[in-house]
Amino acid sequence: GEDVEQSLFLxxxxxxxxxxxxxxxxxxxxxxxxxxxxxxxxxxxxTYIFSNMDMKQDQRLTVLLNKKxxxxxxxxxxxxxxxxxxxFCAERAGGYNKLIFGAGTRLAVxx
Amino acid sequence: xxxxxxTPKFQVLKTGQSMxxxxxxxxxxxxxxxxxxxxxxxxxxxxxxxxAGITDQGEVPNGYNVSRSTTEDFPLRLLSAAPSxxxxxFCASSFFRTGFxxxxxxxxxxxxxxx
Lengths: 111, 115
What we know:
The complex is a heterodimer of chains A (about 110) and B (about 120). Chain A is mainly β and about 110 residues long. Chain A has no helices and eleven strands. Helix content of chain A is about 0%, strand content about 60%. In chain A, strands 2, 4, 5, 9, 10 and 11 form a six-stranded mixed sheet that branches. In chain A, strands 1-3-8-7-6 form a five-stranded antiparallel sheet, with no helix packed on it. The termini of chain A are far apart. The relative contact order of chain A is 0.34. Chain B has no helices and eleven strands. In chain B, strands 2, 4, 5, 6, 9, 10 and 11 form a seven-stranded mixed sheet that branches. A four-stranded antiparallel sheet of chain B has the order 1-3-8-7, with no helix packed on it. The model of chain B has no long low-confidence stretch (mean pLDDT about 90). Chains A and B meet through strand 5 and strand 10 of A and strand 4, strand 5 and strand 10 of B.
C-alpha cells in the first residue's frame, strides 16, 4: 500500500541548516511535494519535485530525491524563526487521483 | 481570487447532531477534496471529487457524506456527529485536466469539537 513516513520533530538553532526527511513506498509516484503549515493555518505548497529529477533548488530550499531508496529530503539553509512550522511530505499516488501525506515534521527554531 | 474558503472556522457540536462544513473555490478547479488532520497522523483523505456530479471515497469516509452539484462548492456533511470526529478539517482543490491531481490549494481549515 501507499505510505509516507516522516520524523515528528526537529529542533535547530537559528542560522543553521535544517534537513527534514521523508520516505515513501509507492514507486510509481510521479510528483513529491513539500507543504508548510504555520500555527492555525492551512497547508501552503513550498515546493515539489518530479520523479525524474534528483535535486531541485529554490532560494533557501533544496529538495533531494533518491528514487532507489524512496527517500526525499528538504533542506532549509540559514533557518529563521519564521521557518518554525509543521512540514508535510506528500506523494501523488493511487492512480494519480489523490495525494498521500506524511504525519508532518514539527520544526522548532531556537536562538 | 479568494482561493479556497471554508466556513465555519470553529464549531462545537453535541454527539448525534448533524452539520455541514462548507467549502468553495473560485479557481475553476475540477478536483476538490476533504481531509481531516489529527495529531501525529497527518492528513487523511475523507472524500474527493474530480468534477461536478462525481464523488468518491478516500481513506476515512465513514460518518461523512459529500455532494458536488457545482464546480465551485463541495460541502461535507456529518450526519450524526461522534466524539471521534473531533478534528481539524481541510478542504483542498486543484486542476485535474490531465487526469492527474495537480498542485493542491488548501483552505484555512475548520476546527470541529464534538462533545
